Each structure stands twice: as structure tokens, then as C-alpha cells.
Amino acid sequence: MRSRWMSIVIRAIRGALARAAATWASASWIMRERQPPSLHSVVHDRLDLSAEQDRRLDAIEARFATRRPALEAEVRAANRELAAAIAASDGDTSQVQAAVDHFHAAMGDLQKATITHVFEMRSVLTPAQAAVFDEAVVDALRSDAG
After folding, report:
1. What is the pTM (predicted TM-score) of this model?
2. What confidence tens digit (pLDDT) does each residue in 48-63 have?
3. How far apart are CA 29 and CA 70, in angstroms?
């Protein structure tokens, strides 16, 4: 009798695990399908670039790839500074405000550099390619805004 109950319990656990795995896989697929394509995939998969355009875009992307980590590191450092200022304060102190200002400046620098990068990439495209590119940029910004 006991082995029968054990078998039932094992089957129930296996069924629950299978349902959980199926739910996770479905949710992952749905979220992946709802994501707009990345700018990189739009540029390289949908724009039918010439060899010259591809070469120029690779150079632009390489330059930004070397600059972006430093900008992101500054944002993380400013965020840590803000966390430390809040932890050390008993309210909205001048140290907290200075850390907020540093964070805003770091985020602004990253955003400005990213926008400059986007427009630099766009300058390499034909008008028809730029229209597809612009639509992808706008869609990405809108989807990120919720």
C-alpha cells in the first residue's frame, strides 16, 4: 500500500515539474516573440547593405563598443555613489543630491553617446534603408516606454 502512495506522489511531482517547465518555456517564447528586433539585427539582416556600408557600419559599431563600457561603468559608479549617500544619510542631504546629479549626468552622457551613435549609423544608409532603420529605432523606444 505504501509503495502505491509513493508512486502516486512521484507521478504528481513529475507532472507538476513538467507543467512548470512547459509554462516557463511558453512564457519565455512569448516574451522573446514580443521583443522588437535589435537594431543590430535590423541593420544587418533587413537592410540589404552593400559591402561598403557593411564595412563602414562595422567601424562605427567597433568605435562605440570601445566607448560604451566606460559610459556604463560611470553609470554603475554613480549608482553606487547614490546608494552609499542614501545609506549614510538621514534624509535628502546635499550628498544625496550631489549623487543624484552625478547619476543623471552619467545617464545623460550614455544616452547622448547612444543617440550620436544611432545617427552616425543612419548616415551610412540610403533613404529607403534609413526609413526602415528609423522605424526600428522609434519602435524600440516606444516599446521600452511601456
Report:
1. 0.68
2. 899 999 999 999 999 9
3. 33
